[in-house]
Design brief:
The complex is a heterodimer of chains A (79) and B (586).
Chain A: H1 9-34, H2 47-65, H3 68-76
Helix pairs in contact in A: 1-2
Chain B: H1 18-38, H2 45-50, H3 57-66, H4 71-84, H5 97-113, H6 119-127, H7 129-162, H8 166-204, H9 206-215, H10 217-231, H11 259-277, H12 279-286, H13 291-305, H14 313-322, H15 337-340, H16 343-347, H17 356-364, H18 369-405, H19 411-438, H20 441-466, H21 472-495, H22 500-503, H23 511-535, H24 567-584
Helix pairs in contact in B: 1-8, 1-18, 3-8, 3-12, 3-13, 4-14, 5-11, 5-13, 5-24, 6-7, 6-20, 7-8, 7-18, 7-19, 7-20, 7-21, 8-18, 8-19, 9-10, 9-14, 10-14, 11-20, 11-23, 12-18, 13-24, 14-17, 18-19, 20-21, 20-23, 21-23
Classes of the chains: A mainly alpha (79), B mainly alpha (586).
């Protein structure tokens, strides 16, 4: 579904996941590198790093797949 | 990382770090940006109120589900899972899936073909102005009042969980919702609902995954629950992990309900009423671009709805199995919210049932992940409020203003009215929130009021669609009698609590069980009155019912599309998975 211009709703989802993924992965790496003393029970699973990474990749794929440039090109090819 | 003391009180469940706060702030910036971006596409009535009727099945389906997936819903049902065990999952499975499939395959064609803007609009076409007026006025006012109650409840949760000031929570969230819905209309609300859907899964999915790892899988979780409840001398602890096997008798399960209440009260009446006639959710599907998308949207919603217990019910059960007092190491027992949030409860450090999800969030989520989880809760609250306000604006503009006040209103003036209604709806919600702050008993009354209309409305709409002999007088008096009988039964139990054994067939019946049976009786009364009155009054001629009633409506066939593109195929798949889940968790 398109909105007013060429931005798809999925592009906004991608931006959201990408930015959150970057922030969460960054926080996870910082915790890991600084050996922060955090009371979270399963810190040894490094959930922030791998879950943040999953969001980052998901967001990047959506941003690329539904980028305004690609959407415009796709629409131009549609009769 | 340093904490952010400016916004936080000393004793809160969780403490946000700057990165958590950055995630929350980014969410607010993004939703406002979406509202501004979509402003140009909300110039006509169809654009503003129906999102241009151009949504794909996926967008409409996810918005349909998300409109119901508010944060209070998430926290409340996680709390109910802690309180009642896996029985709470009935509200996600039999209490949703059959109704969603019924909406898709049976009712959606009529809604779509008659091109109505709202459910009261359908009642106008089918039964006339009086039925529409009754349902639209009740829906419009109850919707904004409920929105205010949810706003207050959410602000209380934010105070308990994060230490945020109640006024801060109410005003920031309300102003944001008012801006993005007034600018972009239903399209903006739907965009943010889909965004919220992804945020909720991203923010909540880790809890069950890490919880199951800690508990030793599903069998380990069941064993721990059994052990913990046995230690606490809870009667029939096995009932907390079985969905059907304890429903033969009212006294065998923690909810005090039997299978009749679940199957007929919840599955056949309450959920059918909510998912097929509550305009808040139906509006999302009405925005679909064609009939096939409109039929597929509830099926897509149903497929994801079946998975929601994984992020809602499972954390509640994990809380029952794993939560311990960090100081003593003893099992942590959660208590009813009013006790936990009282001054005495706070002094003793008690936690309410509804805090189980934030407690599990705090247990597993470090910096960043915690911010995402909190953002998911805020997003759930705000999109729920946006849903209420956009539905209110539509019903007010088309079914009250356009029908009763200014019958010749132009499309432009309707859009203008819709924008003002959005602001007024938010203002009334804020006023309700402050009213509840003064007297919390108002909350119980308004929640009860809302429940009075759903079950009878389903009876009226169902007969309207499936029985051409139903007359305008039958529709109106059936709806009126069903609503009045629901109010009467509720008042009877309030005045004489012993009456619960008549209304809910058992003195063991808890609140949820009472709601089920009250809905069942008032639906039956609505149907009976509609039938009797219809049989003695004059029906509409067939020509006036074309496109509104089964047997007089030509529904497009789908022979030209492959089986994998047919809604009925996917409905069968979803239905089969639903049956398998009941057997697995029997």
């Amino acid at each position: 579904m398109k909105s007013g211009g060429s931005l798809s709703i999925w592009f906004f989802i991608g931006v959201s996941m990408l930015v959150n993924g970057i922030l969460i992965t960054g926080a996870g790496v910082w915790e890991f590198a600084s050996h922060a003393n955090n009371p979270v029970l399963t810190l040894n699973h490094h959930a922030s790093i791998w879950w943040g990474g999953v969001l980052l990749i998901f967001g990047a794929v959506y941003c690329y797949r539904f980028s305004p440039v690609r959407e415009r090109a796709r629409n131009a090819g549609t009769p | 990382m340093t904490h952010v003391p400016a916004l936080l009180a000393a004793s809160t469940l969780v403490h946000l770090t700057p990165v958590d706060l950055a995630i929350v702030v980014f969410y607010f910036v993004l939703v406002l940006a979406i509202g501004l971006y979509l402003k140009e596409r909300a110039n006509t009535g169809e654009d503003f109120f129906m999102a241009g009727r151009e949504m794909t099945a996926w967008v409409a389906g996810l918005a349909f589900l998300s409109a119901n997936l508010g944060s209070l819903e998430l926290m409340g049902w996680a709390g109910n899972a802690y309180k009642y065990g896996i029985l709470a999952a009935h509200w996600y499975w039999i209490g949703a899936i059959p109704a969603m499939l019924f909406l898709s395959l049976v009712m959606m064609p009529f809604y779509h073909i008659c091109r109505t803007h709202s459910v009261p609009g359908y009642l106008k076409l089918r039964f006339g102005e009086s039925s529409r007026t009754l349902s639209s006025i009740s829906f419009a006012f109850m919707t904004v009042l409920m929105s205010g109650i949810n706003m207050y409840a959410m602000a209380v949760v934010m105070r308990v969980v994060l230490g945020w000031d109640i006024h801060f929570s109410i005003w920031v969230s309300s102003i944001t919702v008012a801006v993005y819905v007034a600018l972009g209309g239903l399209r903006s609300a739907i965009f943010n609902e889909v965004l919220q859907f992804f945020l909720i899964w991203a923010g909540a999915l880790l809890i069950p995954i890490l919880g199951l790892v800690e508990a030793g899988g599903w069998s380990g979780l069941k064993a721990r629950i059994l052990q913990n409840l046995t230690e606490q001398h809870v009667a029939n602890p096995g009932a907390y992990t079985h969905m059907w096997s304890t429903l033969g008798d009212f006294g065998n399960n923690p909810m005090g309900i039997n299978w009749v209440g679940i199957v007929f009260g919840l599955g056949a009446v309450i959920s059918m009423g909510y998912w097929t006639t509550d305009f808040l959710v139906v509006q999302r599907v009405l925005s679909a671009k064609d009939l096939r998308s409109a039929k597929l949207a509830p099926i897509i919603g149903a497929a994801f709805k079946m998975m929601v217990p994984f992020i809602v019910i499972l954390p509640g059960l994990l809380g029952l199995a794993l939560l311990r007092d960090p100081h003593t190491g003893n099992l942590l027992r959660l208590v009813p919210g009013d006790l936990a949030w009282s001054a005495a409860g706070q002094a003793q450090g008690l936690h309410g049932y509804d805090e189980v999800l934030p407690l599990m969030l705090a247990r597993y989520c470090g910096p960043g992940l915690l911010g995402l989880g909190i953002t998911a809760l805020i997003a759930g609250f705000m999109s729920g409020m946006a849903g209420n306000v956009s539905a209110f604006a539509t019903v007010w503009t088309y079914d009250i203003y356009g029908a009763l006040i200014n019958k010749h209103a132009s499309d432009e003036s309707k859009v203008k009215m819709g924008r003002w209604c959005t602001l007024v709806g938010v203002a009334v919600s804020i006023g309700t929130a402050y009213l509840v702050m003064q007297s919390q008993s108002i909350m119980d009354y308004v929640q009860a009021l809302f429940s009075f209309f759903i079950a009878p409305l389903f009876g009226t709409v169902l007969l309207g669609m499936l029985w051409k002999r139903a007359t305008p007088a039958g529709g109106f008096w059936g709806l009126f009698a069903g609503t009045a009988s629901s109010v009467g039964m509720w008042a009877w139990v309030k005045v004489d609590p012993g009456a619960v054994k008549y209304v809910a067939l058992s003195s063991h019946a808890q609140d949820q069980a009472q709601n089920m049976f009250r809905a069942l009786w008032c639906w039956l009364i609505c149907v009976a009155v509609t039938v009797v009155v219809s049989l003695v009054t004059k029906p509409k001629p067939d020509a006036e019912l074309t496109g509104l009633v089964y047997g007089l409506t030509t529904i497009p066939h789908e022979e030209h599309v492959s089986v994998f593109h047919r809604p009925v195929f996917w409905a069968v798949v979803v239905g089969a998975v639903f049956v398998i889940l009941q057997i697995v968790f029997w």
